[in-house]
Amino acid sequence: MRYLSHLAMTVTLALFLSTPTHAQNPPAVSYLDGTVALSAAPDHSMPPIGKLLVTAPLRPLSREGDWLRVSMQGWTQAGAERAIYAAPGIRVLHAVLSSSAVEMLVFSEQIADPDTAQLWTKTELQGWIKTPDLKPSLRDIWARAEPLFAQRCTACHQRRIPHHYTANQWTSHLKVMGPRTGLPKDDQFLIRAYLQYHAKDADRLARAAVQ
Ligand code: HEC
């Protein structure tokens, strides 16, 4: 009997400790696997206000039917707020917006990129997306990216080494090499993101990334 009540207490304590504390912590970030249209409201009749790209780090805020309201943090270059990137000065593209969507952005801390002196602003975006494919970690997305890179980027030359180039150099290379693969745009974005997150400056990118 004593043993049983001790057991019951242990189980109760374990349940108490494992209860999630949503009230204090913001919802965890998931990563978008694919490209989706972004809307200002959960409504099909309204035109999209932009798109979110593969690897965009999203926090779910609320749900309505198939629609999910999400928040995303990133960085924008002062004067060019329609593109949201992963880190200041590192152009890993996470969102492309219409000019009307720029009015909905929330800006905070600003820093100067030491390499270029460009001003970058921490930026939060909120909006609605429909039935997104979200993954708990970037590794789940690389499972699809790695074979694409290995197979489609070796048709004409040897496999290039991701960390021989910076993330921004991969942006330029993919402008030329992406279309040469003949793959749909979404797959070209996926290969680009994979190479950028494994680039020479991947450490800097990881440090600036949202947890
Ligand atoms: C249809 C053929 C073809 C495919 C497919 C192709 N490449 Fe290339 N790539 C070339 C050629 C040709 C060059 C030589 C330079 C040039 O013509 O731009 C090259 C050069 C490069 C370079 C070196 C550029 C430099 O200046 O050092 C990189 C990096 C590269 N490719 C990456 C890739 C990646 C990544 C993919 C897949 C997304 C890819 N390539 C797919 C033909 C191709």
Summarize the structure.
The chain is an alpha+beta fold and 211 residues long. It has helices spanning 2-18, 99-102, 138-152, 167-180, 185-197, 202-208; strands at 30-32, 36-38, 50-52, 57-64, 67-77, 80-87, 90-97, 106-112, 119-130, 134-135.
Identify the bound ligands: heme C
Strand count: 10
Radius of gyration: 20 Å
Oligomeric assembly: single chain
Helix content: 25-40%
Q: How much is the average pLDDT?
A: 90
Q: Per DSSP, what share of the residues sits in E-state strands of 2 or more residues?
A: 25-35%
Largest sheet: 10 strands, antiparallel
What string gives the helices and strands in order?
A: HEEEEEEEHEEEHHHH
Sequence stretches where pLDDT stays below 50 over 5 or more residues = 9-21
Number of domains: 2
- Tally of contiguous helical segments: 6
Sum up the overall morphology in one term. globular
Note the gap between the termini: 46 Å
Tell me the structural class. alpha+beta
Task: Provide tags for this entry.
211 residues; alpha+beta; 10-stranded antiparallel β-sheet; 6 helices; 10 strands; binds heme C
Give the topology, please.
Blueprint: H1 2-18, E1 30-32, E2 36-38, E3 50-52, E4 57-64, E5 67-77, E6 80-87, E7 90-97, H2 99-102, E8 106-112, E9 119-130, E10 134-135, H3 138-152, H4 167-180, H5 185-197, H6 202-208
Antiparallel strand pairs: 1-4, 1-10, 2-3, 3-7, 4-5, 5-6, 5-9, 6-7, 8-9
Helix pairs in contact: 3-5, 4-5
Bound molecules: heme C.
Structure commentary:
- The chain is 33% helix and 31% strand.
- The chain is globular and about 45 Å long.
- It has 6 helices and 10 strands.
- With 211 residues, it is α+β, with helices and mostly antiparallel strands.
- Strands 1, 2, 3, 4, 5, 6, 7, 8, 9 and 10 form a 10-stranded antiparallel β-sheet that branches.
- The chain has 2 domains: 30-135, no CATH class; 138-208, no CATH class.
- The longest helix is centred in the first third of the chain and has 17 residues, at 2-18.
- Strand 4 and strand 5 (67-77) form a beta hairpin.
- The structure holds heme C.
- Heme C (HEC) is lined by residues 152-153, 155-157, 160, 173, 176-178, 180-181, 191.
